[in-house]
Design a protein that fits this description.
By secondary structure, the protein is α/β, with parallel strands linked by helices. The chain is built from 6 helices and 4 strands, in the order H-E-H-E-H-E-H-E-H-H.
C-alpha cells in the first residue's frame, strides 16, 4: 500500500501492526557516468517490486530523496542534510506514525551515508519509548539484508557495494539506460581497506577524484536484473519477518 494514495480514513482503518516503511535515499554525485538521482532511482525500483509482492501487508511512505551526503559535497549537484538534522528528521517521521498508533516502523535505506544516522535514529527512538514493549523499530540497507552471494550464475567483480560501481551502474542500465554515460572508460578504483577493522572518517575525494568507487566498466544489463531480483527478494523476506513478529520477542 502507498501512503499517499490513501485517505486518512483508510489509514485510520489499518491494523496498527501493519509495518510502516520509510524508503530513504539521496541526491548526490555518482561519478562521470551516472546521474545524481541514482540512489533514489534504485531504491524506488526495489520498493516498487517489493510492494507488488506485499500489496496489502505493508504501508510504504513516499521515498525520501534527501539524505546525509556531506561527504560528497565537493562534487556539484549533491544535496545533503547535515548528519544531526537528518537524524532528527528521521526521528520526527517515525514519531508521526507512532503518534498515529502504528507499532512497526522501518527505515529502508538506499544510501551508504544514511547508515550511521539511520541507526542512531532508531536507537534514540527506542530510548524515548523505553517503556513500550510492543514496538518494533528497524533500519536496514537493501544491499545488506541477505547473503552476499549472487543468486544467479552471473559472475561479479565486486563482492560489496561501491559507488557508481559495477552494481549501481548495472542496475541503472537495467531500468534507465538513457541516463548512463561512458562507464566503459571509467578506471577501476578499488574500495581499499581504510584502516579496517576500525572506522576512518573520510570524504569522497580522499578515495576518488572522479567520484566513483569500484569497477563500473564491468557493468551489464543482465547483472542489473540479477541484482534487482536478489535485493528485492532480500527486502521481501526481511519485511515478511516484520509482518510475522509476535509483538514482544527479541528475535524475529
Amino acid at each position: 500500500m502507498n501512503l499517499v494514495e490513501l485517505t486518512w480514513k483508510q489509514i485510520q482503518a489499518l491494523d496498527r501492526d501493519t509495518p510502516v516503511v520509510f524508503p530513504i535515499a539521496a541526491i548526490e554525485q555518482h561519478g562521470h557516468h551516472l546521474p545524481v538521482w541514482t540512489d533514489s532511482l534504485l531504491l524506488g525500483e526495489i520498493v516498487k517490486r517489493v510492494s507488488e509482492r506485499l500489496p496489502t501487508q505493508v504501508l510504504f511512505a513516499p521515498l525520501m530523496w534527501l539524505g546525509n551526503s556531506h561527504h560528497h559535497l565537493d562534487f556539484q549537484g549533491t544535496l545533503s542534510a547535515a548528519p544531526r538534522n537528518y537524524l532528527d528528521l528521521l526521528v520526527g517521521l517515525a514519531d508521526n506514525m507512532l503518534h498515529h498508533g502504528f507499532r512497526r516502523i522501518v527505515f529502508l535505506n538506499g544510501h551508504g551515508g544514511n547508515d550511521v544516522p539511520g541507526r542512531q535514529a532508531i536507537f534514540e527512538l527506542r530510548q524515548t519509548y523505553r517503556q513500550r514493549e510492543d514496538l518494533l523499530l528497524l533500519m536496514g540497507t537493501y544491499w545488506s539484508l541477505g547473503t552476499s552471494e549472487s543468486t544467479s550464475l552471473i559472475s561479479f567483480q565486486q563482492t560489496e557495494m561501491g559507488h557508481a560501481c559495477e552494481w549501481e551502474t548495472s542496475m541503472v542500465m537495467r531500468i534507465a539506460p538513457h541516463l548512463v554515460g561512458d562507464y566503459q572508460s571509467a578506471d577501476p578504483i578499488p574500495h581499499g581497506r581504510g584502516f579496517e577493522p576500525g572506522n576512518r572518517g573520510w570524504v569522497t575525494q580522499d578515495r576518488s577524484d572522479i567520484g566513483h568507487i569500484g569497477w563500473p566498466q564491468q557493468a551489464s544489463v543482465q547483472k542489473g536484473e540479477a541484482l534487482f531480483d536478489r535485493f528485492s527478494n532480500d527486502v521481501t523476506r526481511w519485511l515478511e519477518r516484520v509482518i510475522d513478529w509476535d509483538g514482544s520477542s527479541w528475535d524475529g
